[in-house]
Amino acid sequence: QVPLVESGGGSVQAGGSLRLSCRASGFTGSRTCMSWFRQRTGENREGVAVIYSDGPAPYYADTVQGRFTISQDKAKNAVYLQMDSLKPEDTARYYCSPCARTSPPVAGGIWYWAGPALYHWNWGQGTQVNVSA
After folding, report:
1. Cα separation values, 59 from 50, 109, 115, Å
2. Alpha-carbon distance 9 to 96, whole Å?
3. pLDDT tens-digit map of 42-82
4. Which pLDDT score is estimated for 29?
5. What's the CA angle centered on 57, arms 1 and 71, to 5 degrees?
């Protein structure tokens, strides 16, 4: 599988906004959903948001609920993350990933997000978001 490509990160002041994009044009496998997750240097991955292909409403981590919005353009095979009211604690590297309710038969790394009970794989290099106070 071709890794996804994330973009749109940057440096903003607290209270500002950014819109992240994820191109999944090289991804041809089956998936139930697409997710965004983030990782701060030296810390574990933290799930951010999920958008489903099969109906359920988007899922958000409590830490971003009401501030972030996940969306997708199926025609472009792209997923977006609109981030508003950014806080310094949102500083992290952000990744997008396909996700599924069962562990996929892939050779690369797999990450399990317990909140929505979803498996993730095939993420890209990520995009860095820096929020200053």
Report:
1. 5, 23, 9
2. 12
3. 999 999 999 998 778 999 999 999 999 999 998 888 999 99
4. 65
5. 55
